[in-house]
Sequence to fold (391 residues):
Amino acid sequence: MRHCDVAVIGQGLMGAAALRALLRQNVDAIGFDPLGPGAALGSSHGSCRVFRRFNFENPNYTGLSDDALAGWERLACESGREILIPCPVLEAGPKGSAMVLASRRAAVSRGFDAPLLSGSEVNARFPAFRLPDDWDAVVQDGAAILLAQVALEALRAPAETAGRIVPEAVVALEQHPDHVIVRTAGQSFRADTVILATGPWMTRLLPDLAPLLEVTRQTVGWFRPARPATVRPGAFPLFILARSEDDIVYGFPDFEGRGVKAAPHNHGPAADADAWGPEATDVELGPVSEALAELIPGAAGPIAERDVCLYTNTRPADRRPDAGDEFILDRWPGSRLIVASACSGHGAKFAPAIGDRLARLALEPDYLAQPFFRLSRYSAFPDDGPFQPAE
Ligand SMILES: Cc1cc2nc3c(=O)[nH]c(=O)nc-3n(C[C@H](O)[C@H](O)[C@H](O)COP(=O)(O)OP(=O)(O)OC[C@H]3O[C@@H](n4cnc5c(N)ncnc54)[C@H](O)[C@@H]3O)c2cc1C
Fold:
C-alpha cells in the first residue's frame, strides 16, 4: 500500500493551494480529485472571482488578503501566467449602508483613506452607473479580478507534473489511531494526516460536519451590455451593490468580451452537492436584471450566458458568536483529519493564504488558525482556551 505523510482530498482552489504549499516544503503529499481544471463542477469552477483587500465581512481578513496577494503574485511569477487583473471595487448601498461602513472601517483601521462617496459622485466617475444621488459608496483600490481557472491550473501544475494528483474520488476514509486509510475505487493509501477540502461534498466523507454547513444553489449571468464602452476594464469597476441586506448583487467589468458577469450574493435555496443543474432561470436572475436596469443601465441587457455554482456556507457560531459564513480551518477532534471549508461565497481570493495555513495545521502540532476559523467557536466542540487576538 502506498504511504504518504499528508493526503489532500479535493483539488479545488483550497486543496490545490494546500498541496502546493506542502510540496514546496518537500513533504510527501498526494492530492485526490476526479475533476480537473475546466470542469463545470466544483465551487472553484469558472473564469473569475473578486479579489478584495478590505473585506466588509470581517476587518481581520485584511492580513489574510495581504498574505494571499503575496501568494498570487508568487504564483504568477513561478507559472509565468497572469492571475490577478488589478481593478478597483465599488461597494454601494442606500444611505447608512452597513456594508459600505464595514468596508471603509476595514481600510481605515489599516491607515488607508477610504472616502465616503455619494451616488452622484460614483455616477460622474463611472458613466455606466445611475445610483440614487444619496446612496453611500466607497471605491477600494487593492482589488482585482482573480482569474480563477488560470489560478487553479497554475496551483495544480507542479503536483500534476510530479504525478502527485490521483485523478479519482476518495470513497472511504478508515481512521486508525496513528494513520488513516484513504480508499478510492481501485487503490488504497496510508496517510499520517488527511486534509479534507472537498467543497460542497464535505459531509460525504465527514457526515458529522452536516450541522455546521449548508450548501446553496447560486446562479450567475453574463449580461450583454447596453453601452459596451462604459463597462470595459478601466471605465468600470468590480461592483457590489447592497440594495438591502438580503439583496446584494456583485459583478465584473466585461474583461472577456462575454458581457458583464453579475450574480446575487445572497444565499440561494438549499441544494445537494451533486445538484449542478438545471440551468439558471430568468426568475432566479431577475433581481440581477432589475438591479442592473435600475442602478447600472450601461451594463443592463439580455442574458447571454448562465451558470450555476454552489456556496458551502457555515452556520452562525454560538460560543464565540458570529453571523455565519466564516471559514472552518481546523483539526477535527479525535482524528487525523483537517477540515478545510472555505467558501460561503468569498473564499477564493484567500486560497494561497489558506493553503499555507492548512499545511501548517498538518505539519505543526501547536499551530492553530485564527479563532474565528476554529471549530471551538461552536459550543458543540471542545473549548481551546481564551479568545486569542488575530495572528
Ligand atoms: C458563484 C460563486 C461565486 C463566488 N465568488 C467569489 C468571489 O468573487 N470571491 C471569492 O473570494 N470567492 C468567491 N466564491 C467562493 C469560492 O469560489 C470558494 O470559496 C472556493 O472555490 C472553494 O474552493 P474549494 O476548494 O473549497 O471547493 P471546490 O472548488 O468545490 O473543490 C472541491 C473539490 O473536491 C473534489 N472532491 C469532492 N469530493 C471528493 C472526493 N470524495 N474525493 C476526491 N475529491 C473530491 C471536487 O471534485 C472538487 O474539485 C464564489 C463561489 C461561487 C460558487
